[in-house]
Amino acid sequence: MRKILFEWTIENFSLCYLNILKSSTFPEGVNKEITWCLEMHGLCRDYLSLTLILVSCRASQVVNAKYKFSILNAKKEEKEITESDDILSYTHNGKSHCCKQFVRRDFLLDEVNGLLPDDKLTIFCEISVFDYVRSSYDPVTIPFKPDNVGLLLFENPEFSDITVRVDGREIQAHKAILDVQSDYFSRMLKSEMSETQNNYVTIEDIDYETVREMLRFIYTGKVENSENLGKITDLLVATDKYELTKLKVMCEKILCTRLTVENAAEILILADFYRADYLKAEALDIIKSYLTDVTDTKGYKSMENSHPHLVSEVVQSLAKHK
Description:
The chain is α+β, with helices and mostly antiparallel strands. It contains 14 helices and 12 strands. Strands 1, 5, 6, 7 and 9 form a 5-stranded antiparallel beta sheet that branches. Strands 2-3-4-8 form a 4-stranded antiparallel beta sheet.
């Protein structure tokens, strides 16, 4: 998690608060990967609103962040603190989230409250950007040339030489591709098993849709419907048995973008069991960052009983970062 701090001072505030006010872009400097700005509206009834806007990020990047807004008085003390309740997703340049009732206008303008020393309003913005969701995922591709060869061969019965049977259904495949892309399939195809000698493989421990998506990745280096959390979880489980390292990496990165307070404990258990170290580290990170909220979830309470060693890891991780 990274923190971005920004102070925005508005001079002669009492003369301009009815206008739409916009801050400079921050953080300043060249080669900044992610930049933001603030926008204040004073026309809303009774309240001033404050909006956080994502100005720039990399193409296809998903920026997940929380914000905290406050007003600094003459002693630089934070007053009128407002925080986002959840982690917010900024999916493209110009994406924004608005705090519609940042501060009551009459309260702010009242000199007794000391929020406008010398008619200056100083807004303090703290943004927490979570690195585990910096991007949707970095594409992992299989080095086929031309790029569409795998797609043309996937589920194409022409020249196929092996049949994958699952849930009473069949998928046509090619031994050479299975051999190159999966050590598990390579050993199976080179064994003396009667199945492979008869040019078919039966898979009984994974459902049809998961096997089909696994084969799609073997052929094309891609998966479909990556927003389906259950589907990606099933794929991660499959990669453990069928030794598909690149698919495992992709599944871990996708699941990192789906981490929430509510599911962090369940994903930690999953990552630990299937030795998904990258995903496990990111699940631990969100648990540490939102410990109070996470410990109130059913998933965490269940983990305390079923996986006490993971609770110990959380405690040890917290101790290391104090």
